[in-house]
Structures are given as structure tokens and as C-alpha cells.
Design a protein that fits this description.
It comes from Micromonospora andamanensis. InterPro entries: Bact_Sigma-Reg, GAF-like_dom_sf, HATPase_C_sf, HATPase_dom, PPM-type-like_dom_sf, PPM-type_phosphatase-like_dom. This is PPM-type phosphatase domain-containing protein. It holds the Pfam family HATPase_c_2. The structure is a single chain. By secondary structure, this protein is an alpha+beta fold. It has 16 helices and 27 strands. A six-stranded mixed sheet has the order 1-5-6-4-3-2, covered by helices on one side. It has a five-stranded antiparallel sheet with strand order 12-11-15-14-13. Helix 1 packs antiparallel against helix 2 and helix 11 runs parallel beside helix 12. It starts with a strand and ends with a strand.
Length: 690
């Protein structure tokens, strides 16, 4: 065998030539083999089939992998043999292979660096060489028949490095059929876990080719279980000079090796290396596939964790939820500490996979000293970096930082059987960021709710006055879950003449601006009414104020001046400024009725109309004021409406003001399962004379 500059040119009547151009595709080697097989069949050269298919596969595969261009396959067969040329269109030299006696270590290094394709070509081909064209380069090989008359297949001579022919007890030169079978072995694509069978098949083939008495493939996937036997052949390899060990070329966390109970001969070492490389390639695919599945699982976990954390706007509940998300998925135990205004850490929540260990965990978290876990937690919080934790509760702490503010630490203990891998640590740090943001959002929500409640309470009377013979009661339901300030308000103000002024109103919009206008309306009414101004003048002056300073907001009002009348009656002077008419419920029975005459809302026009309606309330009669949050309560497309309000008030005749207000509130709330879209305010005035 020798490497030459170009194939021998030969033409004749018995020559069979086939030229095809194939794409740079993983299916190209199979197509090239099909072309060679058809030419061999036409030329009646079946004895060269194994060698020809093996070498064609190697050259076409190498060209596809390295050149990544289209390939020209030229196959020429005659009575003497077969010539195959594989050309590509990529620039650059073809890797050369020095043939001859070489040091075994040098041979292994060169084989590892240059691949196995040209080694096989040099071994099995009668001649081989390279071609260079302006458009690219190629490699050709020639297979000659030993007997042109068809006496039988040729037996390829071993290379110079192989030494003398095999004697009794020595390993024979591998056949082309065995090499072809070794190269064509692939994992079952339909098996759930094809690697064990694939590794066993490769190990058996290479062990039989090199005459090994036994062999084993070990693999450590980095999952804490250590090296596991992936495949075994024959007896357990025994340590000694005849033990051939080849590491698997896989990336972390995978690690493994191939062991053969065979002497490292000229063929055994390269074949073991070739087998290890083929196995490593599929192990890398398995690692990448598992890593992808694992990452997808982590992404799903993070999405679910974010959704759960986002659903809670309660600070304590959020902090209690974090350890439940971490344990046992990301660690054996978890503790959440938060910082107070002085920067001191306080344990907010803790969990352990073993519930019986929770008291010990709490005791460890309370220890003092420079090497204690609390000291390490303070260091993590102070430095803002991940900090390892020592025994007995080994793990690490991650700072909780949101919007540049240090909120505390998230401490996580290591798994019982293995340490967290880099992916788990990255996920845990992501969980810490999301948890910190959830805690901060919950704190902001709690602060906003507190401010809203404080502001809302400042706009409503803390208690209604207790007046002999007159009953007052009110119910208020804010919208937005107590986080926003509504525009509805009510009040009961004493008048200078001894009467009482009942006020209920609704300022357009919500939030701080609406609250500012509500406070303005309430204060103006109190000042003007306290000065003894008539109610029409109060409404007119208030309208002027809103037009000038209301920032485009308007207000509807219902004012009722209540005082003693004839006998046990109460006289009511009712003024409506764009507000819904109140409901009058008579103690004598009969259906409830709407009373009063509508007027103009305040803050829209320069002048308003506010007709006065005079009413007399007998003992037990009550007057129900309300805002549009009651009548506009929705159930799908259906409104609660004024009709339902009147019907709900009718059976309440004779009840106290507190009962009437509470029953009407419950009826309106229970009308729909949805949260109120608008504030609900109900104010009841009743004649409590005996």
C-alpha cells in the first residue's frame, strides 16, 4: 500500500464509470455507498464490497464533516479492481498520514488529532492519494483484485507498523467486514435509553477484534451516584500491563473510560481509541439532550415559581412560600432572613425536607460566634454575594436584592447525597432574585394599602354621632381591594340651628387626585354649613370652588337637613345635586319609594339647579342614601339596578338603621361573585322616636 499523487488512468470496454454530485448532508455517505454498490454489482466485483463500502463511508463522512460543501463522487470499476474519488469544493490541504513504523504514543496522538479515515484507507486500499483542483481537493483509493480471473477476495497486507503476520496466540489483523460493522453500529433511535445496548455492542465488537478477554465501560453522569457500569464484556478487566484503558472524551459533568483486558498492540490501541470516540460522540449527544430536558424543566419550575410568588401580595405569606418552593427541589433545607431598619437579620421562614430536623435547624440558625451560620448570613447580606456555609448545616447563602435594596438572605442547604451543580445554583440565584422582587412588591403593596386605608379613613367620619331620636348608620366597601382611594364619601355634620346635615357624595375617578377633591368637598361643606349658610348657597359656593380648582373632576351630592318636626316626626329638607334619589322605607308597610328631585352635578357648569324636597319621617321610617356603586354592581351584563335596591329595602321596614344598612350592603355584594368595580357607600337615616 502507498499514498500517491493521483489515481491511475485507465479506459477500456469493460470499464464501469459513475459520477454523481451529492449535497453536504448526513445522508450523503449512504448515497455514496449506494453508488459504489451498484458499480460493484455491474462489474461483478462483489469480493471488494466490504472494503469499498468502509472506505467510501470514511472519505464521504470526513468530507461532509470538515469541508461542508457539495461532494463529487466518481466510481470507476474494471476487471482489475475499483477506484473511488471523493472531491469537495473547500479550500485548504488534505490531512496527510505518514505511513511507516511509528512510536505507539506518537501514533495514538496523531490518530486522535487527524481522525481514523486515512488510517483505514492506508490499511485496506491497494493505493490511495490526493488530488488538487482550482475548485477544491479530493482523496481517492484503489482496490485491486488479487486474481483478475476471480480467484477470490484480496487479503490486504498489514502496514509496516503492524509487524510480522500474526502467530498462534496473537491477535489477527481486523477484517474490513469487522471494521465496517464497527463503524456502522448506531444506537436504536426508538429505544427509551439506547446507550447501554449501544455501548455493549461497541464493546463486544472491539473486544472480539483485538482479542480481549474482558472489557467494561464506566460512566459518571455527575448526578452524585458516581461511576456506573454502562456495558460489560467477558471477565472483569484485571489490573496489569495488559490492561488497556482509554478515557471517554466527554464534557463535564460526564466522565468515563473504556477498559479492555488486552495488550496495547498496534491495532488494539487505535481501535480502542476509535471505539471510545464513537461512544463519546453519542454520550455527548445524551448529555446535551439531558441538559436540554433539564433546562426545560428548570424553565418550567421558574415560571411556576414566578406565578406563585406573583399571586401573593402579603409579605408574610410570600416569605413563607419561598422555602416551600426551594425544598426539596433545590436543597435539603432553606431559611429566609429579612433585614430590619437597623440592618439586623430576622428569621422570617424556614423549612427542612425532614420535618424532624426543623427544631435543630432553628437552633443552628440561632447560634452565635464568628463561624456560625448567622455570621455567614450577615456576611452574604453585607457583601451582596453568594457565601458558602460550613458544617453542620452545609450549604450557601444568596443575598435577596430587589431594585438595588438589600432585603435579607436566602440560605439553602446542600442535597443529602450530592452538591448542587452549576445549573441548580444558577436556578437558585434566579429564584432568589424573583423572591426578593416578590417580597419587595408585597411590601410596596402593603405600604400602598396602608396609605390608602389611612387616607380613606381621613375622608370618612370615624364614628357617626349618637343623637336622641335619630338613628344613623353607614356601610362602606372600597374597590381595588383596599389598595386605592375611592371617591365616595359620607358625613353627618351638626348645624348651628340644632339640626343635623346628612351628606353623601361621589367624586369622579379614583386615586390620590380623587381623594384630594373629596377632601376639598368635605371641608367646604363643613365650613359653610358650620357658618349657617343655607344649603342652596352651600351647593352654589361648592360648585364655584370645583369649577376653579377641581382639576376637571365633578361631584354628585345628596344633602339632607334633619330636625325635629310636629309630634314625633322628623322634618327633612332634601337637596340633590346630580345624585341618585334616596329610598324612603315606611314603617307602616307598603313598597319603598324613591323621593326627591334631581339637580345638577357640581363642577361641570358655572350655575346649577338644586330643587328642595321637604319630607316628614314618622317613627320607624328610614331614608336610605347610596352611591352608584350599589346600583351599578354587575353580574355579567346585568346591573343590580335601582329596582332591586327598592325591592331589597321594602322588607326592612321597622328595622334599626344598622340592620338596614348591613342587609342592603350584603344584598348588593352577594349579587355578583366579582370584586366591586366601584366604591359602595350606604348611609341610613331613621326616625328612632319611641
Amino acid at each position: 500500500m502507498s499514498a500517491e499523487a493521483g489515481p491511475a488512468a485507465k479506459t477500456g470496454p469493460d470499464e464501469h464509470v459513475r459520477r454523481v454530485r451529492l449535497p453536504a448532508d448526513r445522508r450523503t455517505p449512504a448515497a455514496a455507498r449506494a453508488v459504489v454498490r451498484s458499480v460493484l454489482a455491474e462489474a461483478d466485483l462483489d469480493e471488494l464490497l466490504n472494503e469499498a463500502l468502509l472506505l467510501t463511508t470514511e472519505l464521504s463522512t470526513n468530507a461532509v464533516e470538515h469541508a461542508r460543501t457539495e461532494l463529487d463522487i466518481e466510481v470507476t470499476a474494471d476487471q482489475a479492481g475499483l477506484t473511488v474519488t471523493v472531491s469537495d469544493f473547500a479550500a485548504g490541504p488534505v490531512d496527510e498520514l505518514t505511513v511507516g513504523v511509528r512510536n505507539l504514543a506518537t501514533e495514538i496522538t496523531e490518530v486522535a488529532e487527524r481522525g481514523r479515515g486515512l488510517l483505514l484507507v492506508d490499511h485496506f486500499a491497494s493505493r490511495w492519494g490526493t488530488t488538487y483542483l482550482r475548485t477544491g481537493k479530493g482523496v481517492w483509493f484503489r482496490l485491486d483484485r488479487a486474481d483478475r480471473k476471480g480467484a477470490g477476495p484480496a487479503t490486504p497486507a498489514p502496514p509496516a507498523s503492524a509487524g510480522p503476520p500474526a502467530e498462534s496466540g496473537q491477535t489477527a489483523v481486523p477484517s474490513a467486514g469487522a471494521m465496517n460493522a464497527l463503524m456502522q453500529t448506531t444506537p436504536d433511535p426508538y429505544a427509551e435509553d439506547p446507550l447501554p445496548d449501544f455501548a455493549a455492542g461497541l464493546l463486544t465488537q472491539v473486544a472480539e477484534m483485538v482479542g480481549a478477554a474482558g472489557g467494561v465501560v464506566r460512566l459518571d453522569r455527575g448526578d452524585g451516584q458516581g461511576a456506573q457500569v454502562l456495558a460489560r464484556y467477558g471477565r472483569q478487566p484485571r489490573a496489569g500491563n495488559d490492561l488497556l484503558r482509554v478515557p471517554l472524551a466527554v464534557h463535564r459533568p460526564y466522565a468515563g473510560e473504556l477498559e479492555l483486558d488486552a495488550a496495547p498492540t498496534a491495532y488494539a490501541q487505535p481501535l480502542a481509541l476509535l471505539t471510545a470516540e464513537r461512544l463519546s460522540l453519542h454520550l455527548e449527544n445524551d448529555r446535551l439532550r439531558r441538559a436540554d430536558v433539564r433546562r426545560q424543566a428548570w424553565l418550567t419550575f421558574l415560571a411556576e415559581a414566578s406565578e406563585l410568588l406573583a399571586q401573593s401580595l402579603d409579605v408574610e405569606l410570600t416569605m413563607a412560600l419561598i422555602p416551600q418552593l426551594v425544598v426539596p427541589r433545590l436543597g435539603q433545607w432553606c431559611a429566609v432572613h429579612t433585614t430590619d431598619e437597623w440592618g439586623r437579620l430576622r428569621l422570617a421562614a424556614a423549612s427542612h425536607a425532614d420535618e424532624s430536623m426543623i427544631p435543630q435547624l432553628h437552633a443552628t440558625l440561632r447560634e452565635t460566634g464568628p463561624d456560625s451560620i448567622p455570621a455567614r448570613l450577615r456576611e452574604a447580606s453585607r457583601n451582596g454575594t453568594r457565601t458558602p456555609l460550613g458544617a453542620p448545616m452545609e450549604g450557601f447563602a444568596v443575598p435577596l436584592i430587589a431594585r438595588g435594596q438589600r432585603l435579607g438572605t436566602l440560605a439553602v442547604g446542600r442535597h443529602q447525597r450530592h452538591r448542587q451543580d452549576p445549573d441548580e445554583i444558577a436556578v437558585l440565584e434566579d429564584v432568589a432574585r424573583r423572591s426578593a422582587l416578590a417580597i419587595e412588591n408585597a411590601r410596596i403593596h402593603a405600604e400602598r394599602r396602608r396609605v390608602a386605608q389611612t387616607l380613606q379613613q381621613s375622608l370618612l367620619p370615624p364614628v357617626l354621632p349618637v343623637v336622641e331620636g335619630i338613628g344613623f348608620a353607614a356601610e362602606y366597601v372600597p374597590t381595588g381591594g383596599d389598595v386605592d382611594v375611592g371617591g365616595d364619601f359620607y358625613d353627618v355634620v351638626p348645624l348651628p340651628d340644632g339640626r343635623w346635615l346628612v351628606v353623601i357624595g361621589d367624586v369622579s375617578g379614583k386615586g390620590v387626585q380623587a381623594a384630594a377633591v373629596t377632601g376639598l368637598v368635605r371641608d367646604v361643606i363643613r365650613v359653610l354649613a358650620g357658618d349657617g349658610k343655607p344649603l342652596p348657597e352651600v351647593l352654589a359656593r361648592l360648585n364655584e370652588t370645583l369649577v376653579e380648582r377641581g382639576a376637571g373632576r365633578y361631584c354628585t351630592l345628596a344633602l339632607a337637613a334633619v330636625g325635629p318636626g310636629e309630634g314625633d316626626r322628623l322634618d327633612v329638607g332634601l337637596h340633590l345635586a346630580g345624585h341618585d334619589r334616596p329610598v324612603l322605607v315606611r314603617s307602616s308597610g307598603g313598597p319603598a319609594a324613591f323621593v326627591g328631585t334631581g339637580g345638577t352635578a357640581l363642577g361641570l357648569l358655572d350655575t346649577i339647579a338644586s330643587p328642595t324636597a321637604q319630607l316628614a319621617l314618622d317613627p320607624g321610617d328610614c331614608l336610605v342614601f347610596y352611591t352608584d356603586g350599589v346600583t351599578e354592581r354587575r353580574r355579567g351584563r346585568e346591573l343590580f339596578g335601582t329596582g332591586r335596591l327598592r325591592d331589597a329595602a321594602t322588607p326592612l321596614a321597622g328595622y334599626s338603621a344598622d340592620v338596614v344598612a348591613a342587609r342592603l350592603r350584603a344584598t348588593a355584594i352577594n349579587f355578583s361573585v366579582e370584586e366591586p368595580r366601584d366604591d359602595i357607600a350606604i348611609l341610613v337615616l331613621r326616625n328612632d322616636a319611641a
